[in-house]
Design brief:
2 domains, single chain, two-stranded antiparallel sheet, Pathogenesis-related Protein p14a
Amino acid sequence: MRKLAVLMTLALTGCAFGQFEDGEEDDLPIVGDDDADDPGDDPPDEEPPPDEDSSDGGEPPPDEEPPPDEGGEFRAEPEAGEIPYYTTPTELCDWVNEARDTSSGHERYKGLPWRGEYHDNRTWPVRFTVDEDLMEIAQAEADRLADEGGPQGSAVGGDIRYHGFWVDGVETAQMTITAKDVPGDWDPGYFKAPLINSHGSARQALYYHDSGGDGPELERVGCGGSDAGERAEWWVIVLEDRW
């Protein structure tokens, strides 16, 4: 403001006494535009709209998420509060190997649960190799069960605490174990699941099992699962000998 007042005084004084030559007044700054040359006061340039066809290397729009794979692996939906040890066939095979690891120090068992015998002749590996061909075989059996086919083999293990299951082909080149989980089986307050490793029948049929030379050495495993209706699930485990 002081600068503006001084300039106006000089301008008036010059006009009164004729001190400016022609054209000198053009050098006076415009009143009220002291900082007109300051680029900081210029309005910011507006960015042009993005060129949708541009190939300048900018980030492309995010890809749309692919639709869910309807042909994916079966997954169980446990009841609220339940804690199942597996919910997919892959997890079931992992659980079988984990439970066999846990039971690796126990003596082995051959034959059907409660009808065979314990022994110390170890011929099977502790952990089975998960085999894709057996995964398909086990899943096909689970799908058959979902289509209201009945379980194959001998029913074993049903008692006041745990639910039973079925064993087919014991001490042969292909052994199949079939179980059905129903709501409440995986309640942590009172487990009743057929294949839980605290179930003595499951230990003898699978987690301690070894033919001990009375049958083939089973080394591979495949698992399958399907909807059994009324929020229950079918689970199938297939064991086979080496390739």
